[in-house]
Amino acid sequence: MRWSDVGTLDCTIARTLSVIGDRWTLLVLRDAFLGTRRFEAFQASLGITRHRLADRLRKLVQHGVLRRVRYQDAPARFEYRLTEKGIDLYGVIAMLAGWGDKHMAGRGGPPVERVHRGCGHVATLQLACDRCGDTVTARDMTARPAGRLRTGRRARAAEEPA
Amino acid sequence: MRWSDVGTLDCTIARTLSVIGDRWTLLVLRDAFLGTRRFEAFQASLGITRHRLADRLRKLVQHGVLRRVRYQDAPARFEYRLTEKGIDLYGVIAMLAGWGDKHMAGRGGPPVERVHRGCGHVATLQLACDRCGDTVTARDMTARPAGRLRTGRRARAAEEPA
DNA sequence: GCTTTAGGTTCTAATTTGGAACTAAGGAGG
DNA sequence: CCTCCTTAGTTCCAAATTAGAACCTAAAGC
Hints:
two-stranded antiparallel sheet; DNA-binding
């Protein structure tokens, strides 16, 4: 199976990865969440080739994750900003950062810390159930077929992870 | 810059992506969280080539995300199970699923739903601050240089996203 | 004019991936 | 005891993707 076909699968994770599951794309988004907006700034920060970067940015714009905004005429210059859809990806970045800080930090610890403006503390983000508000981990959750896939069968929970 | 060098960078997100930022790896993990453990099952579910799958699983084992467990002798047969470190990646998968369900669902909605055992509801997971417990989004958070990088400078918040 | 800046595009060589076939080590059926 | 089946891989080649470097455009500054 070609990677270009993955986006057509009936799995929202597979489709999501067809948009952002690229080697460099999540690093582009990391920088976008740190405030980077210009082509040259992404390129300098990431060390990605200009060709790849142009391609990645174009795809993210096509998928509505970034917007290409003209910030100057004569000569025309553009910057890339997160859309609302893009801002919704913060959770993915936050979880990657949280896992990396815990399991992959080098000597001296992580180079960036994230502060919760509301309470003023350096925070690690956790998962919370939107229905009851409790914090959850993998072991508190169960997956099952949804909607039409469940019709006509007894809904049964998938097996436990690990 | 070669992708193989990304893991040496002083950024925990970059290092994390050097482990799981591969085209197929997050789909392998999605299946692992749904209970898949065997080589043939991953291969059938993903449509990845056997060669790639063997390589991906080997790398995940090397990085301590999966464990290769012998479940039968004569002939020796192995299965792959999430380690604690691997289970900690649930947040990444959950956020990808949440984003995909919201922004990429096809006709008929997402094929899998996730149930919070604690309250019994189909839940979408949100981010919560581990210090104050409030749910947060990107706009509630600020990033700044941490630890040694911050020493000798006035700590200043990075710019707002978007 | 000459250089610099910003945002790209083009080219080639190296690396990675897909696809399909093959191996190994038993087990089942006849 | 011969052949097919299962599981978990490995090997090989062609095709696709990527890295690295050079080049292009258009205006501004000196």
